[in-house]
Amino acid sequence: MKGYTNGEIQDFEDETSPAGVILGLDGGTTSTVCICMLASASISFGGGEAAESLPILSRASAGCSNFNSVGEAAAKETLEKVMVEALSMAHSNSSAVRAICLAVSGVNHPSDQQKILEWVRDLFPCSVKIIIENDAVAAMASGTLGKLHGCVLIAGTGCIAYGFCEDGRQARAAGAGPILGDWGSGYGIAAQALTAIIRAHDGRGPQTTLMNNILNVLGLSSPDEVIGWTYADPSWARIAALVPVVVASAEDGDEVADKILHYSVQELADSVKAVIRRLKLSGEDGKSPFPLVMVGGVIEANNKKWDIGKEVVKLISKDYPGVFPIRPKVEPAVGAALVALNQYTKSFRVDQSS
Amino acid sequence: MKGYTNGEIQDFEDETSPAGVILGLDGGTTSTVCICMLASASISFGGGEAAESLPILSRASAGCSNFNSVGEAAAKETLEKVMVEALSMAHSNSSAVRAICLAVSGVNHPSDQQKILEWVRDLFPCSVKIIIENDAVAAMASGTLGKLHGCVLIAGTGCIAYGFCEDGRQARAAGAGPILGDWGSGYGIAAQALTAIIRAHDGRGPQTTLMNNILNVLGLSSPDEVIGWTYADPSWARIAALVPVVVASAEDGDEVADKILHYSVQELADSVKAVIRRLKLSGEDGKSPFPLVMVGGVIEANNKKWDIGKEVVKLISKDYPGVFPIRPKVEPAVGAALVALNQYTKSFRVDQSS
């Protein structure tokens, strides 16, 4: 073992023993991704320049691991399978693992963390540091290369704003699902567009090009058929997939679509601002800089004129000029791996100095 | 057979043969009710004074008969069962039936009418007039004693406005379900109240007494638990059952609850006005009188100060001063029976005069 010099970790391993590895897992409602990375990586946390040179050994993926969606047995099996596969693809094994971060959607309480810890604890040596977090942690860390400070805004099918302080405090806003008013989400935007069609058709709302544009995409011939289409399949993602049609309609000058997107921007900005305010992420005076990591299909649904993410940042910066937006270059599972690596190097330093 | 005098039907039957009967059926998503009534009833259509003296022989009830909810086989069985039971309770049988109106939720197209007609046609003699309609028809007729002219507003778990012209034209507004923005419905009101709790809790919205009032009713200890409660059971009626808590909170001076109810009133009035406008129910000048039948739990959720139905009428009458609100004294199945009776007496008059 080489130890470390000047606070930078150089190499944790004897050159003869198998290389230590780190696992980072991003478990979502659609898919689960596990990254295996060398534990000997020298990462300068906080910058973005190291993203391209991360020592990633392998990447495995599987289906949903949110136990609320698929049940506990299936979630446990998926988590186990995807980690075993990532290790195998990296020609490594569980004894080489130094730290793991599982960032899994559905984890909201300490009891959720305890449950998942019990599922995976026996798969690895006792010395392995295992961190269980919500999947927002992986998204946050993917933008800050492992550092948990600032705010992350995830706007895909659903939406949530999650804030982290360096002292460990966390806060969230939105993320309550479509029934409970996540109007900034992809589902929320598309549901408003479908509602606008119904209103134009039955005489309650203004005419809108969303009518023809959405009917064309769905292959329907009349607005009456929209009701049946909506209720034929309860999948939120299927509704949310209409977001690009709303953006395109707004870009072509449709006022109804434009209004829906502006409302969505307001909602997303409100969620972020609520988190900033509660955690004082921008300092007592609201002027300090802080990172805002932004991910998800709604943020990426930008065309020539309409860029939802840019508009959200514009609104936030009116109140908090120190907002520093980051669109991550690496995927959330890599963020999770960096959280694990960060923890491992910290504990390693403590071990060495004690 | 006595025939008729002065255009009033006195008695259709020989005194020796079994009395002719009428069936009226109201098929909803929660329950199905069938009324058996004497075909010899003398009804003055349009007034409300005859409601108490209708010659109702029996009333049978069963579960859901909306084929979209329970499937075609179960819906067919329920319709058949409830009609047979009503006839049996009235000590009558299918050969005594003169006319039937089945007003069933889920009937929206001629193909739906044809399907149900095929299910029930063989149960009765060929001469029996069978009318198949949407359940809004039963609600309308329950307020006008069988006459299909005017508008009906149904605001229960869902909401819909349905308009009828004497020439047979119909129009509807709303009734598209919770995903598609029925914000005036019981579900819509309660979902907004639950959303207000989430917003107050995560710092996006003002504080509201809805928080404690709803948590108490649901037996929950924290707003975080509301998300899990909401998604634990997808029943819309379960959410809509919170409407009385919203009304009570508004009456106690809660501004958030008050705003939700005012928005709901606006939405319901907009739906009715869209139907009036499209059918010109209030004449070319918008000043002619027309009946507005109002039914459902939201309309009935009035306490001392807040009366949603009254506020809806107030808004409509600003544009259409001829609106004449009716809160029916008889149930929708009786309305359906009166539609059938109305048709029967019409055809009887035609037969006699031809």
Automatic annotation (TrEMBL), chains A, B:
Domain ATPase BadF/BadG/BcrA/BcrD type: 23-340
Molecular functions (GO terms): N-acetylglucosamine kinase activity
Pfam families per record: BcrAD_BadFG
Transmembrane segments: none
Known EC number: 2.7.1.59
SUPFAM superfamilies: Actin-like ATPase domain
Entry similarity comment: Belongs to the eukaryotic-type N-acetylglucosamine kinase family.
Protein name: N-acetyl-D-glucosamine kinase
Organism, as annotated: Dendrobium chrysotoxum (Orchid)
Highest classification ranks of the organism: Eukaryota, Viridiplantae, Streptophyta, Embryophyta, Tracheophyta
